[in-house]
Amino acid sequence: MIHSFLRRDWIGRIRLALTLFGLPYTVCTPGARPAISCSYSHNFRTSQTLGPISTSFCNLYTTGVQTMPPSSAPHVKSRCPQYPGSKINRFLVPDDKVGWSQNWPQYKPLSYTNPLVEKKPVWADPEIGSFSPKFNTVDGAVDRTSFEGSYKMEKQKPLNPRGRTGVTGRGLLGRWGPNHAADPIVTRWKVDAKGGKTLHSVSKRPVLQFVSIKRKDCGEWAVPGGMVDAGEQVSITLQREFSEEALNSLVITPAEKAKISDRISKLFKSPGFQVYKGYVDDPRNTDNAWMETVAVNFHDDSGNSVSELPLQAGDDAGEVQWVDVDSSFPLYASHSHFLELVAKERKAHW
Predict the structure, then answer these.
(1) Apex 249 CA angle, 220 and 244, nearest 5
(2) Which of 272, 252, 343 is nearest to 22 (CA)?
């Protein structure tokens, strides 16, 4: 995502009572390797949840639509030649050497952990050896389970379930092993002056609109999202991130907060479509730390919950607005795929 995890308020930030129900997304500009331009887009705030990251307590549903790339596909963004935010060059890993099952004695990657992470902020683990984490389980207030299933260990360190990345350590990530995030995709129908659904001139399908934020760091449009805080349920993260980034709920008056709370609670208690849950091919990933996310679509079908609320950009967003869901609208690559899946589920134009 962005370097906003470095912002001054990542520690002790006021959490609103206005929270109920926030999967990294990443971007890698298409192109032939090794000339891959990668960027990342999740606020790194803290860590994982108190219990295993599960959405069973939420009113979610899934369909038969394939929402995740096959685990056999080698990750690409996680092998960007230069690790983001550093001068560290990754050890070049060809497609046929990504899997850990491939014997490769010549593989000698550099170890890198960002200096900020090494300062032991509240959202980061200490170095292996100075503490004894319990991997593949809930470890106190940190959920170290993975959506990918049980991951392997080597020299007391977890191994990336999707294989080699060309660098060891944690890089910019705080946790050894999985680092969990969440992305709320809030949509409504585009309507005409009479309140009827607007049909696309070519596809003749109804047009969806989604809440999109323009990132301050790169000027690109994206879905709001962020890291799951320690002791926080994914449902809480989803609503918190939407409230903070799209409605600027950190600075509004108590009366406005109460109004927004009612509207958002109504929307986030409605059935949500789980668009994606799993590993994220993120340029911050290393052999020992990686991003995972849950992306959920909440649809304001009647247009009377959040659709009527004034959008206001939060501290991580330069702008925020309702945007038509269309394949021609430029978004971070992974979010474009998320929106395509939402459009198919809602039988809307894409």
Answers:
(1) 40
(2) 272
CA-nearest of 276, 289, 327, 314 to 18 is 314
Q: How far apart are the first and last CA of the chain?
A: 25
**Count of CB atoms situated within 10 Å of the CB of 150:** 11
What's the CA gap between 246 and 214, in Å, rounded? 10
Q: Are 215 and 222 in contact (CB under 8 A)?
A: yes
Dump pLDDT digits (tens) for 244-260.
Answer: 665 665 566 788 778 77
Place of tokens 């459009």: 343
Look at residues 207, 212, 210 and name the one whose alpha carbon lies nearest to residue 349. 207
- Residues 157-194 have pLDDT tens digits of 999 999 999 999 999 999 999 999 888 899 999 999 99
Separation of alpha carbons 170 and 326, rounded Å: 36
pLDDT band at 27 (very low <50, low <70, confident <90, very high): very low
